[in-house]
Design the sequence.
């Protein structure tokens, strides 16, 4: 469900962006029709879930400069097919567990995602550089120095436990 919420947030952000583009492009005064089309096509590429439609171009005279200018009438449309495709691509989870208790899907998913934080905490142990620093040095090492490694691991575990 969280992926669909994330997509909904992206759609809302895209709509806000489209509305701001709509107002800024509608207020501008352009020198000619080709400038309107060029800017319109460039700005259109910035939107993912919405589409700006150039409805009309009106020729007018600027009151301050007395020059001929063009104004665009623009409308905003949602790309419903693209939004539905994105929601379908959001995916689904197949939840399976060997726990015999009756758990809701959200509880299973929460427990599964909880394992990820533990895995991230021990990620450094899988890093080959971690053991290269202590286990494979060319300098003769006394066995007492391996206590330092245990200390580093203990400090790392304590840090991880206090931050999660």
Sequence:
């Amino acid at each position: 469900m969280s992926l669909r919420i994330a997509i909904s947030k992206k759609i809302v952000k895209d709509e806000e962006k489209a509305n701001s583009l709509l107002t800024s492009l509608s207020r501008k005064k352009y020198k000619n029709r080709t400038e309107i089309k060029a800017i319109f096509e460039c700005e259109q590429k910035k939107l993912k879930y919405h589409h700006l439609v150039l409805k009309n171009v009106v020729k007018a005279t600027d009151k301050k400069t007395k020059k001929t200018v063009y104004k665009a009438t623009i409308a905003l449309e949602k790309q419903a097919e693209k939004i539905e495709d994105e929601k379908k691509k959001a995916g689904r989870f197949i939840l399976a567990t060997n726990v015999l208790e009756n758990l809701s899907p959200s509880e299973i998913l929460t427990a599964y995602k909880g394992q990820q934080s533990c895995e991230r905490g021990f990620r450094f142990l899988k890093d080959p550089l971690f053991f290269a620093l202590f286990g494979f040095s060319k300098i003769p090492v006394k066995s007492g120095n391996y206590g330092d490694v245990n200390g580093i691991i203990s400090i790392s575990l304590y840090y991880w436990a206090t931050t999660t």
User: Anything to note?
Assistant: The mean pLDDT is 79. The chain is about 55% helix and 15% strand. The radius of gyration is 29 Å.
